[in-house]
Amino acid sequence: MRLYSLNKRRFVLVFIAFFSCFGISLLVGIAGPPIIDTVTVNGSSSTILSTNSMKTGPYKLQSPPMSTFHQQLWLIAHIETDNTAGSTFEQQFRMGILIRGVNGDAQTLVKSDNPELSPEMHNRTRRLRCSEKCEDLIVMHLGFLDYSYYFITIRFYDLEEAKFNIRSITFDFKSYNTSFTQIEIWIRFVFLVLTFFCTCMFAHSLRKFSVRDWSIEQKWMSILLPLLLLYNDPLFPLTFLVNSWIPGMFDGLFQASFLSALLLFWLCVYHGVRQTNRRFARFYLPKLLLVGLLWITAVTLASWQEYNELHDPTYYYRLDASNFVGFKIFFFVIGGIYLLFLIYLLIRAYAELRQMPYFDLRLKFMTALMVIVIGITIAIVVMRFGGGVLQDNFVAELSTNYQNSAEFVAFYGLLNFYLFTMAFVYSPSTNALYESHFKDNPALSMLNDSDEEVHYSSDTEETSLSNLPRAHDSDEENFR
What we know:
single chain; 480 residues; alpha+beta; four-stranded antiparallel β-sheet; 12 helices; 14% strand; disordered C terminus; membrane; WLS-like_TM; transmembrane helix
């Protein structure tokens, strides 16, 4: 691997290049447009200004002009009551919603054959929670847009006998900014092209070597790079060409698959670097089951909400409390087990291999880059959600989407440049065929050599090392 031919200066340059590329992508995101467009409608203007009508409606709303570049549409209600004392109260009520879509000049209503735009009124139970101000109510969410305009009629039930009065109510139509959508298409396309070239170059560099002689990092990179192609989603433009939920479903599936493969990569590398007996049943199967449960949970939660919203755009996952809480607890339990297992493998690897220079170098590089990626990811999540990261901001809703272009570009750039850096370091060096070959086995490591002497020696020392007798040809794995 090129890892063994890098001296200290080159290692520093590798990390400088990584941070420079990430910083450039972050600057591009900061200069980008806001992600969400918001149009506010005063609900009081759509009904008679009386106490009873404010509690019942109907509220008749018309959305701003929509296109496929708006991607999704949310309708959120902000309710203000006359609760001036600041006391906390909750009120359960029913909300009826009728949704119609029109195309063209918005003059003629067009009845839709799509089940999510059924002419029948959807009835949902909601809970209004108020203290100094009331929590926002997500009235509806459309995962993809078929029409140019949407007409929504909203009625409230069971609020007539409530002790409080509604002073005002406003509705926010939220959708993706079309300028951000165009930037997202270009960013995904650029990363897709870069990943394609990186994958081809990495595969080309390994063409001279048998697969059985690849190191475990090289084998995993040959899996992760094609999955990174899917993560960048070559099907993403279909979202704007086809009025269907299928491209969005594939996008979520690709992202979950790549992230799960990355989690599996960390487990396998930290375990596999200290042993060569990697039989499927004992080595890979337990890890596949653990990460597979995380993958199944993530895909099920996303597809479950998508499926329900297709049949009823007023569906809200928090109201399906029993299923949602169960999935959420299961996800965090499995995630906790994964984290403990990863820490255990990392400690074992360092305890057994820290005195073995070649393997110690692999562990240091792998851990340093992984910690950087995890640290930046946690920083992005904390800045996005704050203390609510473990609360109900869990499934796809407005609060779990990126808040600005910087967050989107930073996260995409981080994962792409992480894979590009590993592909460069784990690719075979230019003189791999002429280096001393050394089997990927901790039992054969140079126990008496220090990491400094082997990898960062002077020219004289490097010359003397090159005169050492060569090992058997089958022991070439570590030098690619």
